[in-house]
Amino acid sequence: MRVLKRGLAVLGIVIIVFSITSVYDTKNVNAQINGIRQNYIKIDVLLYNSNDKFISLVRQNLEEIQKQNKGKVEFEFFDGKGNQAVQNETISQIFNSRVDILLVNLVDTQAAKDVIDKFRNKNIPIIFLIVNHYK
After folding, report:
1. What is the CATH architecture of 2-128?
2. How many angstroms separate the CA atoms of 27 and 38, rounded?
3. pLDDT confidence of residue 35
4. Element (DSSP H or E) covering residue 124
5. Burial 85-114 (b: 16+ CB within 10 A, else e)
6. pLDDT in tens, 11-32
7. Could you tell me how far CA 117 lies from the centroid of its own chain?
8. Model confidence over 80-122: pLDDT tens digits?
C-alpha cells in the first residue's frame, strides 16, 4: 500500500511539473523578471533529506523531466539533511536568487507558514510535497 501511495505521489509531481511547463508562458516571464532574458523555467526543489529512498526517486524523476525538456525547465536541488535549521538557511539563500517556482518538501511541516510568508510578496508559486517520513 505504501508503494502505491508513493507511486501516486511521484505521478502527481510529474503531472504538476508538466502542466506548469506547458502552461507557463516564458515570453511573459521574460518581460516580467527585471528585464533579464531567460529561456527556461527555474524550479528550486527543497528536499528534506536526499538520502531518503522515496525522495531520491522524486529527484531522479525530476532530473529525467529536465533531460526530456532541455532548455525549457531547470531544477536546482537543495538537501535539508533532515534538519529544519539547514533548510531555513537554504530558504533564505533562495529568497535572494532568481526562481520561478518552489517545490518544497519540508523537514518540519509546521514551517510551511513561514515559507509562504517569506515568498508571498515575490509572487512565486510554491508547491508543497508532503511525505510521511518513515524511519
Report:
1. 3-Layer(aba) Sandwich (3.40)
2. 9
3. 47
4. none
5. eebbebbeebeeeebbbbbbbbbeeeeeee
6. 566 666 655 555 555 445 544 5
7. 17
8. 999 999 999 999 899 888 899 999 999 888 888 988 988 888 8
Classify the phi-psi angles of 87: left when phi > 0, otherwise alpha if psi is within -120 to 50, otherwise beta: alpha
Return contacts of 74-77, CB within 8 angstroms, 24+ apart: 74/40, 74/41, 74/42, 74/43, 75/43, 75/44, 75/45, 75/103, 76/42, 76/43, 76/44, 76/45, 77/45, 77/47, 77/50
Q: Return the amino acid letter for 33.
A: I
CA dihedral 119, 120, 121, 125 (to 10 degrees): 80
Q: What's phi and psi for 43, nearest 5 deg?
A: -115, 120
Q: Where are the domains of the chain?
A: 2-128
- Count CB neighbours of 54 within 10 A: 20
Asked if 48 and 55 count as a contact pair (C-beta separation under 8 A), the reply is yes
Packing angle, helices 53-68 and 2-23, rounded to 10? 30
